[in-house]
Amino acid sequence: GIQTYWSIHSLLLQYLFLTAFVLLLLGNLAAEAQATFDLSVPTGIGFIHIPLKVTQVNSQPMAIDTIGDFYDALGGAANVSFITTYDTSVGVWRSYLGDQSNGTAADRTITDDLGIITVMKNAVTLTFGGNALGTNGTSAMMLNRGTNLVGVPLDDQRLTRVSDLFALQGIQGNATAIIVLDPNDGIFKVVAQ
Questions:
Q1: What is the pLDDT of residue 55?
Q2: Pick from 2, 103, 113, 148: CA 20 to 30 A from residue 92's CA?
Q3: C-alpha–C-alpha distance, residues 43 and 79, integer Å
Q4: What is the pTM for the complete model shown?
Q5: SS3 category, 137
């Protein structure tokens, strides 16, 4: 019921607030003009990155520009408990809770490097079509001091392991740890320098 939902939501946010780490997500899409991407969103907690400017979902025209659009594409309340992002400009976690969140700060625009945390009732697999993010095969992530939740928008041959992120300019010497969610066992793991 609602008490369980708020307890899970509260525990997740408490866990995330207590981390003083950089949270990074790896996208796995090479830069190309038109692309497709299969996104599998697991039951429970998932770290998600959308590596396209989405214009199609499952071969049907549909733009995904905001978190609300993504919520709808996932099947809405039937499949999604809530979707959380981190707003580094004010240091606040924002949770999209459904229709009541439309037009609020939680219904933010999906950017090239936006990391997304999903809490799902049911697993969903979508095929996105659209334009790969980045310009001429390159892209940038904006990192701020403290916690960041970002996605790596391009497939980069320098990145074969999560720990390879520590060698990238801007992250090297600045990030102390990266928290990942192991898709095999659903356990958060820390990768440290």
A1: 95
A2: 2
A3: 9
A4: 0.75
A5: coil
Q: Retrieve residue 122's tokens.
A: 């049911």
Chain segment 96-130, per-residue pLDDT in tens: 999 999 999 999 999 888 899 999 999 999 999 99
Residues in CB range of 74: below 8 A, 6 or more apart: 41, 80, 118, 120, 124, 126
Tokens coding 130:
């659209």
- pLDDT for the residue 16: 39
Q: How far apart are the first and last CA of the chain?
A: 41
C-alpha to C-alpha distance for 152 and 141, rounded to whole angstroms: 7
Which residue shows structure tokens 């949770």?
Answer: 95
Tens-place pLDDT, residues 22-73? 344 333 334 445 788 899 999 999 888 888 899 999 999 999 999 999 999 9
User: What is the number of other CB atoms lying within 10 angstroms of the CB of residue 27?
Assistant: 25
The rounded distance, in Å, linking the Cα atoms of 132 and 94 is 26
Radius of gyration of the chain (CA): 16
d(CA 36, CA 6) in angstroms, rounded, equals 35
Contacting residues for 110 by C-beta, under 8 A, at least 6 apart: 50, 64, 65, 66, 67, 69, 70, 116
Rounded Cα distance, 123 and 141, in Å: 28
Higher pLDDT, 15 or 184: 184
Dump strand ranges (E) for the chain. Answer: 22-26, 34-41, 44-48, 52-57, 60-64, 80-87, 92-96, 116-120, 124-132, 148-152, 177-181, 188-192
Do residues 165 and 174 touch, judged by C-beta distance below 8 A? no
